[in-house]
Structure formats: C-alpha cells, structure tokens
Amino acid sequence: MRAAPRPAAASGGGRGAPSSALWDPSSLDSVVRCFSGRVLFLTGTTGYVGKLVLEKLLRCVPDVGEVIILVRPKKGVRPSVRAQKEIFSSPIFDRLRGEIGHDQFEQRVLSKVTPVEGELTQADLGLSAADLGRIHASVQLVLHSAATLDFDERIDRALEMNVRGPLKVLAMAKRCQRIEAMVHISTAYVNSNRQGFVKEELYPLGLDPEQLIDKVGQGAWANKETTTSLFPSLPPPPLSFPAVDSRERHHSPFVLILWRCLVCFLRVRVSVSCVEVCRMSEVELDKLDVSNFLGAWPNTYTLSKSIAEHMLHQQHGSLPLAIVRPSIIGSCWREPVPGWIDTVSALGATLVNVGTGVLRVLPLQRGAVADVVPGDTVVNVLLLAMTALRNQTGRFTVFHATSSMEKPFHWNHCYDLAVEFFQKRPPPPSVRVSTPSFCPAQSPHLVELLFAWKYSLPSSPLQLLAPLWSDHAKQQVHAERKVAARARMLMRKFIRFLTTQWTFDNSRSRALTHMLSNEENIIFGTALADIDWTDYIVRPATHMGQASWQAHADRARGPLMATAPIHVVDFSLVFASSCVYVFRPCVCCV
How many CB atoms lie within 10 A of CB 71? Predict the structure, then answer.
C-alpha cells in the first residue's frame, strides 16, 4: 500500500536549514517502514554503490513501492535492456535469485524497478516529458549516487558531473509533489585540505564556488594568476611527506640543490592563459596540469565534491537533505556476497598492482590509518540517513561512513598483508610483472632512491642497448617504461591519502544504529567492532580467477599507462642523485 500523498515541499533556496548539531537520533523510524510502499528515485545504479543499494532494497524491503533508476542513453538500446545487461547480470543479485527463485526474481525486478533514460549533464536530467511528469507526481525519496570518481578528471568535467549534476537532481526533487527526503553521496575526503580530527559538519570552503565555476567556464582553470585569486584564504597544502628529520638538515647545499633540480625536472608545472585554453583541443586540454587550480585539495574529485556539498546546503531550502561521506569504499563484508567488489580503484588499484608486481615502492606513513569501509556498511548508512531525515522539514545533516574512529586499521598492516598473501598465492604468470615485493618509505628522498633502485637502474642498460637488439627487446623496454609510468602515476595519485592522518568522527552514524530494533540492527546495522581486517583485506583476492586477473591487468595496460616514456637522461640524473645521497656523510664532512 502506497503512503498517502503529502503537500509538496517548499522549493525556496538559501541557507535556512537548521543546524545539524540539533539533530535528534531518537526520531529514527523503522527502515523497512520508511521504504515500504514508497517511490525512490535512484541514480548511479551501474556503479558499485548504486548496485548494492538496489540489491539491498529488493532483498530486504520487498514491499518497496517502486525504484526508478536513471540509466544513461545508449543509441539503439532501451533502458530496460541496458539495465538487465549492466546491473541485474551482476553476481550480487545471485543471493536473491537463490532465495526466491529465478522466476520470482524476474517478476520482482519487473514490478519494482523502472529504468528511465536520462543524463546528468543535460537539462532536466535529459528525461522525457512523460518520465519527468511521472517522477514529479510520484517520487517521495531521492538517493543520488552518480558521480565521476576519476581523481584526475578534467576540472570542467568534474564540476559538470559532481556539482551541476547533484544540483539538477536537487532541483528535480524540490519539484516532486510528495517529496520526503533526499540523500547525496559525497566523500569523507572533501576535507582532505585539512588534517587530524574531522567532524560530521560543513567546514568553511575558503572560496566562492560560483566564482570558481564561472572561471572554469571562461577557460581560466589552467592560469596560475587566476587560481591565486580564487584561493586567497586557504592554507598551503599539507606536506606530502612527514617533516624532514633533524639529521637531514645538515646536508650540504650541493645535495639539496641536486635534489631540488631532480624534483623540478620530474614535476613540470603548466600555466597558460585563458585565451590559450579556449583555443585548445579536447586532447590538449586533457594533458594540462591544473594542480595550481586545486588549492589545498589533492585532486579535482575531492574539490568538486566539497563544492557540491556547500552548494546543496545553500539551495536545499525546506527539503530534508542528508550528505553521506564514505571514506575508502572496499569490498562487501557480510552481504550480499562477502568479498565481492566490481571495481578496481583507490585501495583495490594499489593492492592489485602490488600483487602483479607493478607497484614495488610507495610513500607511506606507517602509523597512518587506512580508513576503509565495507560497501555493505556504506549502503546501511545511506538507508539509515534517509530514514532519519524523512519528513524532517528543512533539516540538513552530514553522516560519515568511516572506520578510523571505531575500528582503526593501518596502512603498514594493509600492505604487509597484501605482500604476504600474494607471495603465497601469486597471480597467474600471464598478468604478473615480477614477484610481489613492497618497500614503504616515509622520506621523499628515500622514495626516489627506491624508485630508481626498483625501476630505473635495472632497466637503464636494457634501454641503452635496445636499439641494437631485436623487436622483442624493444617491446620489453616499452613494457618496462609502462610499468614505471604506472607506478609513478599511482604514487602521485595516492600520496596525500597514504601520508596524511585523518580521524573521521562517525558518532552520528553510530547513533543511528543504536536506535534500531534488534531485528533491524541485524539487517541494517553499521557497527564495525567485529570486523577482522586481516580476513577482509585478502578475501576479494581469493575470489579472483584467471579471468578477473586478466581484466584487471588489461585495465592496468589501458589509458592510465599512456604517459610519457622515461628517457635515459632520467636514469642518469636519478643515479647521480642516488650516489650523492648515499655518500652524503662524506660530502658533508668536506
């Protein structure tokens, strides 16, 4: 039975939301009752978290009224066909198929799930007039999961998907006549420009997001002078590595100068004018380095997600809105399939590359916490947040789906486990570059030395002599260049997350679990006190067969590998720097 219609929520904007600090967890309703008979609009269902949300609702809330899923258009393919191929063929639905039977499963999907064709980057989400009218008349709950997760996404594309996209979903939700609540998935690392303890609240952004978006539209996103004016009140980015040890302050000027030359040589920065940006092709724009534009954020993903939170807060009006911030989302812990994950990114990317022997060196603060959260825990926090905010007019609340405060897990333990596991159970030879081994390093000097030792020096004789050898030797040199390039790319991508310490407060999320009944706590609980990190980290790899490893290896050889080759001059410079660093006591004594 569908819930009775309620008056439409006011659609006014502004900052009129009550303080989330006044939120009372005792107002939590039953999760099953919250979704039973109601219509949910869900985005991002072709992604990992979106699939898990849909599976959880179909399995645990069979009386859900309807789930309308947004599916990107594909020429000549109906949304229902694409949903069947890209969503319901996933192994995570096998549990439900086994419990109720194949025919009942197909019937439940047919009666409960409605795919509609749409696109976040288009006006009105690219929905047809008929679909838009039906959504406005029937939808009561909105859960926005779609986003671009690429750390290196071009800034204009990141803002389009991660800022304008959520704002379009919000605008659609505010026009729904029966709307009760909206939940937006963000990331705990929207505050990666900070360090230490992070609360479940909005911190000052330190910039005008609308001005930033306007500058991007004008093509000013690769100009250093423009970006300096955009970030006037931001502190400098946190150091990528711990502070230099006092013993290293006594290095001779020659050592320090050589080191700085090496860093400058390997990390070239680009600053171009707005006119030049506007004249560039798509390929040229993709190659631009816009790190100056990011302020204290490590990448365009975290910056765009942070901007989205603030703009959603400004514009949500009387619509109850919850922001859920997961940290590093890992595989499923308990359900629907323990150890299952369908994407290799972030933690999974580094672990797979350790296992295949691609990643042998990594900047790592050994005492830093690896804030990993299981995918099924994230889904439970999302559903609890929706239940808590439903019908709380004007309420705005932030929830962390994190583990660092409740059950901390450290990076050094994570990678020690990975190396030990892959040495005992190595990947197939066809995808393995070398025997899995791993050298963590805290000092930036040591990282470069180890990189030279593990990648550059062993392959430099091969590169020098390759022109005299066969085509096979040349191919081997090219493969070595790609491996080194990928390792360098992974170091650059994850250095901030591996060397910075955060503790994310999740007391508000834990309070939700405490208000559940015993029966619902078993199904929707978020407590991580019982998780065995050792088993959790290695479990996904135990399910990876030859086909899975091959797929991950193919991804590793894809566009991410297409970086500039490492030339012989690089090796000589690294080798010279290494010799000076190794023999620095002798130099300092002169």
Answer: 22
The Cα 159–Cα 153 span in angstroms is 9
Model confidence over 389-445: pLDDT tens digits? 988 889 999 999 999 999 998 888 888 888 888 778 777 777 677 777 777 777 777
CA 366 to chain centre: 22
Q: How far is CA 154 from CA 125, 151, 214, 298, 301, in A?
A: 21, 9, 15, 13, 9
Structure tokens that stand for 526 in this block: 């978020």
Distance of CA 110 to the CA centre of its chain: 31
Q: Is the pLDDT of residue 555 over 50?
A: yes
Whole-angstrom distance, CA of residue 391 vs CA of residue 27? 10
As a dihedral over the C-alpha atoms of residue 419, residue 424, residue 427, residue 428, rounded to 10 degrees, the angle is: 150
Q: Which tokens go with 335? A: 């359900």
As its CATH architecture, domain 20-192+297-327+371-406+506-526 has: 3-Layer(aba) Sandwich (3.40)
Within the chain, all domains assigned CATH 3.40.50.720 are found at 20-192+297-327+371-406+506-526
User: What is the model's pTM?
Assistant: 0.78
Contacts 24+ apart (CB under 8 A), 491-496: 491/361, 491/362, 491/363, 491/447, 491/451, 493/151, 493/152, 493/299, 494/346, 494/350, 494/362, 495/240, 495/298, 495/363, 496/192, 496/238, 496/240, 496/298
Is the preceding omega at residue 336 within 30 degrees of 0, hence cis? yes
**Residue whose entry in the numeric block shows the structure tokens 């991007």:** 216
Provide the β-strand partners of residue 441: 363
Picking from 184, 223, 190, 195, the residue whose alpha carbon sits closest to that of residue 209 is 190
In whole angstroms, give the CA distance from residue 354 to residue 438.
7
